[in-house]
């Protein structure tokens, strides 16, 4: 038996099928003994569920019964303090412009604080140095491929 047939059988037992569908199910059950046995078992389960639960009356009128349960649970929690009013929101254009301008300002500060880091010519970093010693000479060699500078100082 497939799932659709089982669901249709359950719907027939619960009285949820149309007259035409119910007649088709009854005709199918007359031909199939396994389907009849399953229908009888499902009706028995339905009857047990309906009749098997004993009805118990509360020991006092229902109003007092529920009030006693409420007393046992304790007092209701105090209502929470209302949330503070939300701060005024910025206009939409300002919410977009503010982070963008902050990022641009941070980049500008970075470029201004590191003046020679992006230049390939060492204009300000290797300026001429004056020395009080008259008989000192120096030779400077800079290798861009090795990223290194060598200064030869001669004191003859």
What proportion of the residues is helical, as a percent range?
40-55%
Give the SSE string.
Answer: HHHHHEE
- Sheet with the most strands, sense and barrel status: 2 strands, antiparallel
Q: What share of residues are in beta strands? A: 5-15%
Low-confidence stretches: none
Amino- and carboxy-terminal Cα gap: 110 Å
Q: Give the overall pLDDT as a whole number.
A: 80
For the largest sheet, list the strands in their spatial order: 1-2
What is the tally of beta strands? 2
| Outline type | elongated
Radius of gyration: 46 Å
Sheet/helix structural class: mainly alpha
Q: Number of helix segments?
A: 5
Provide a descriptive summary of the structure in words.
The longest helix is centred in the middle third of the chain and has 22 residues, at 92-113. The protein has a domain at 1-72. It has a two-stranded antiparallel sheet with strand order 1-2. The protein has helices at 3-13, 19-31, 33-51, 62-73, 92-113, and strands at 137-143, 148-154. It has five helices and two strands. It is elongated, with a radius of gyration of 46 Å. It has 156 residues and is mostly helical. Strand 1 and strand 2 form a beta hairpin. Helix content is 49%, strand content 9%.
Question: Characteristics of this structure?
Answer:
single chain, 156 residues, mainly alpha, two-stranded antiparallel ribbon, elongated
């Amino acid at each position: 038996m497939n799932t659709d047939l089982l669901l249709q059988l359950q719907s027939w037992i619960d009285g949820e099928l149309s007259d035409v569908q119910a007649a088709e199910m009854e005709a199918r059950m007359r031909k199939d003994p396994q389907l009849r046995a399953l229908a009888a078992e499902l009706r028995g389960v339905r009857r047990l569920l309906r009749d098997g639960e004993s009805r118990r009356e509360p020991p006092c009128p229902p109003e007092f019964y529920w009030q006693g349960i409420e007393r046992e649970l304790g007092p209701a929690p105090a209502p929470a303090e209302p949330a503070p009013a939300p701060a005024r929101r910025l206009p939409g254009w300002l919410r977009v412009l503010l982070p963008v301008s902050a990022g641009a300002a941070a980049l500008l500060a970075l470029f201004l604080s590191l003046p020679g880091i992006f230049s390939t010519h060492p204009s300000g970093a290797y300026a001429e140095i004056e020395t009080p010693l008259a008989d000192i000479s120096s030779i400077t060699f800079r290798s861009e491929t090795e990223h290194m500078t060598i200064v030869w100082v001669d004191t003859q």
